[in-house]
Amino acid sequence: MASGLAGEGVIVEVATTDDDGFGRAVSDAPSVWDARAIVHVFARQTRPYAFSWPLTVWLARNIPRFDIVHIHALFSYASAPAALLARRNRVPYVVRPLGTLSAWGMSSRRPRLKRLSFRVIERRILVGAAGVHYTSQTEQEEAERLGVRSTAFVIPIGIAAGPGARAPTTRTVSPFSGAWASQTPTVLFLSRVDRKKGLDLLVSAFSILARERGGGRLDIAGEGDEGLTAEIKELARRLGVSDRVRWLGAVHGARKAEVFAAADVFVLPSYSENFGIAAAEAMAAGVPVVVSDRVGIARDIADARAGVVTSCEPSAIAGAIAQVLDDPAEASTMAERARQLVAERYSVDAMSLSLMSMYEEILARSPAPARLHGAESRSA
Question: Is 90 left (phi over 0), alpha (psi -120 to 50) or beta?
Fold first, then answer.
């Protein structure tokens, strides 16, 4: 987003804590230039909720400089002072919930505390917002079930074409039938290791295919919950497929492109997903995809016939994988449609233009509209 907006002539500054997930710091430097934006990194004082006094002080001093504030995520400390200080300084702000308002998000990880926090804090943040940025229609509908009625903007995440992506016509999709064991088709999962991603469903589905057809390999790329990783490895052992499951760890850049290029089908069987960026990346790389019907972009994929959408059941997921790999010609056509869908709806350019349109609409409603383009523009 930062890079795309900068390309449109917007001055972008990012304020964040040093909690890069699982307690890792993103940087020890107070300010670095990254992704064509000025990134300010502040130490957090608590691990839960990521409270940061230095971030609060910076927001208090600097929010008046901006034309608009874009808040990412709820149920995290930074969103509360950002919204409060923006309101106090009459700077319009947008909230991107990041899937936190889904049924899964509200019922997992301290659900009682979340319900209380939603009534006391998050609802007020949303009511005061000039707009709520959803990344899919599904995410908006789930938020509205909670009673969220703020002005909504549905803007998908932009996907940059990665290195090594190949046209689907040059891919060789290995058919399961008969030759599966010798051709060893590769099923790929690439995302965070998190319970909502449905890895238990995927390993169970893979075991069904391995039992019925023999052979094949499941590549799991990503890292995250170490306890869950141990559980999934034990599940694979019990189902008799641990020797066919490769754990690749986190992959980035050229290595990620290599992993996509080696895959015959990508599967994201999530129980909940506000968008599904990993699936969009796979589509951009020309890999046929299978996603659950709870992935935010599942409707787009189904409407464009750009992949196979399935329920969150191991047998259904196994059938969807077989559907892709049993028909290489259709899988290739599917991948071509997927690349077209990404180019039309999920490109960085499309996202950036939509974000600009949202900002300009919000600023036009503000008491003193500002320009986002050109030398006279303030920061955004």
Answer: left
Encoded tokens for 248: 């690749």
Task: Specify whether the CB–CB gap between 292 and 269 falls below 8 A.
Answer: yes
Determine the pLDDT at residue 201: 98
- The 10s digit of each residue's pLDDT in 164-204 is 444 443 444 444 444 444 468 999 999 999 999 999 999 99
Its domain, for residue 233, covers 168-345
Strand 245-249 and strand 265-268: the pairing is: unpaired
**Structure confidence by residue, pLDDT tens digits, 66-87:** 999 999 999 999 999 999 999 9
Q: Domain with 32 in it: what CATH number?
A: 3.40.50.2000
Per the CB < 8 A criterion, the answer to whether 170 and 205 are in contact is: no
Written as six digits, the tokens of 243 are 């020797």
Nearest to 52 by CA among 30, 78, 73: 78
- Using DSSP bridges, classify how beta strands 289-292 and 265-268 pair: parallel, antiparallel or unpaired: parallel
- Bridge partners of 122? none
SS3 127: helix
pTM comes to: 0.86
Number of domains in the chain: 2
**91 Cβ contact list (under 8 Å, min separation 6):** 63, 64, 66, 67, 68, 69
Q: Are the CB atoms for 159 and 353 separated by under 8 Å?
A: no
Q: Does 57 fall in a domain? A: yes
DSSP label at 308?
E
